[in-house]
Design brief:
Helix content: 40-55%
Strand order of the largest sheet: 4-7-10-3-11
Number of domains: 2
Largest sheet: 5 strands, parallel
């Protein structure tokens, strides 16, 4: 019995001591909490936070805390800070074009060499390419190139890879002291936005391309601009270049405006008219084309509107004379073309020959020149002769590329059977030693048929 009482007394002592420990712990926690709250309260007093009981600042919730700076900067306010955070109202969606507006004087050349003749232009360009760039071209190819520029704004350089198609267009830009713009065509291109860019709804900016920038720049300048559409038939030309083709057909250059955006902003670049850019009359498009399995065939629509230069072989290297770059204005080049048309009109004899050739082609192959091609023949031949070339050589060249090309769509068996008689007709009409390109083209069709 005594042992039981002893045990009970011990248990009571242990419980009593545990209660004391718990009480000590609780008191200690209370003291720590009081210290923490005291520290927080002291910090808040230093930051000077007060409850907003006055008229709230625009956009401020009534009753929310307003932090007052301990040392306000003179001349600043909350309203001024809000304004600085907002985007500027005059921010343009065309950054590069606006930069051209700001620096437009740098694109206006003060002086030009407007005394050069077309034959001098061809000779000097050929020598410049050989001497400065180590690029060699036959003088006949240079004459064809310059004469092509006189006929249309679209030139197609075609032939085997490595014959200097792209470099010819590049060299011409260097000779004119206005570097050519090279646009590598991509296989998936299908519309004009691939060439000039598009408006990005997310960034609220227009994605400007190099071509758009050059087109805008050209409208401030009187220089000749060259744009190279490199490997132009790796995509369908009549898709991505369709609107350009249509505009280039308009007889009045002042009416050639291309859609860029569908609306007008007050701060758009100065030369944009209702979201449209003028297709510059001083810009030529030179496309390079390879004819292989990786490319699309060039359609009749494109061929009819373009001039074609076949570069099938490299010219032999030669020592070119050292010549200066030529600052040639668009107006003087157009004057040279106009003067050439007046001075070197096709002779009456060759007009009659062309008429007889047209009649033969209608009767035997059901193809004809058409008004557009006849106009191109007259202009091309005149300028080619002014460049120092022979009239019949020019007639031979343009007929082989613009007229006989249509025979490719004819029945190949019939074309092959009719070729010998046609070649005999050419010999009788022009002479056995003439029209080599036409005869070579017909022999090619004969073999392929």
């Amino acid at each position: 019995m005594m042992n039981l009482n002893l045990i009970m007394n011990k248990l009571i002592d242990i419980i009593t001591s545990m209660d004391a420990i718990i009480i000590y712990v609780i008191v200690l926690l209370i003291i720590i909490i009081i210290v923490i709250f005291s520290f927080i309260n002291s910090s808040n007093n230093n930051t000077k936070i007060e409850i907003n009981s006055v008229t709230p600042v625009s956009g401020q919730i009534v009753g929310s805390p307003v932090v007052q700076p301990t040392a306000p900067v003179a001349g600043t306010s909350l309203q001024k800070v809000d304004k600085e955070k907002k985007p500027k109202e005059n921010k343009t969606r065309f950054y590069m074009l606006s930069q051209i507006d700001a620096n437009r004087s740098k694109y206006q050349r003060s002086s030009y060499n407007n005394t050069v003749k077309l034959d001098e232009l061809c000779e000097n360009f050929r020598n410049f390419a050989a001497n400065r760039l180590k690029l060699y071209y036959d003088i006949e190819d240079i004459r064809k190139f310059i004469a092509g520029l006189a006929v249309t704004k679209l030139i197609i350089l075609q032939g085997m890879s490595g014959t200097g198609k792209t470099s010819l267009a590049y060299a011409f830009g260097e000779y004119l002291d206005n570097t050519s713009t090279v646009v590598p065509i991509q296989p998936m291109w299908k519309e004009r936005t691939d060439l000039i860019g598009y408006y990005n709804e997310f960034t609220k900016r227009f994605s400007e391309t190099t071509l758009l920038k050059k087109m805008y720049e050209a409208n401030y300048s009187n220089d000749i601009y060259v744009t190279v559409l490199d490997e132009m038939n790796i995509a369908r030309i009549e898709y991505y270049f369709a609107e350009f083709l249509s505009l280039l057909e308009l007889p009045n250059p002042e009416g050639r405006y291309l859609d860029v955006v569908s609306d007008k902003w007050p701060n758009d670049p100065k030369l944009l008219r209702n979201g449209q850019i003028k297709l510059p009359d001083n810009m030529w498009f030179i496309g390079t084309a390879n004819n292989d399995d990786s490319t699309f065939a060039i359609s009749d629509k494109v061929y009819d509107r373009a001039m074609v230069l076949n570069l099938d072989q490299k010219a032999d290297p030669f020592v070119g004379k050292r010549v200066k770059r030529l600052h040639l204005s668009k107006e003087h080049f157009e004057k040279l073309i106009k003067d050439a048309k007046n001075e070197y009109e096709i002779t009456e004899r060759n007009k009659k020959r062309i008429k007889l050739l047209d009649e033969y082609l209608i009767e035997n192959f059901n193809i004809t020149f058409g008004n557009r091609i006849m106009k191109q023949i007259r202009e091309y031949v005149a300028v080619y002769v002014a460049c120092g070339g022979d009239e019949l050589v020019a007639i031979d060249d343009i007929i082989s590329k613009k007229v006989l090309r249509k025979l490719e769509t004819q029945n190949p068996i019939y074309v092959r059977s009719a070729t010998p008689a046609f070649i005999n007709f050419l010999d009788e009409l022009f002479g056995e030693e003439k029209m080599h390109l036409c005869k070579t083209y017909m022999h090619k069709l004969e073999r392929n048929g």
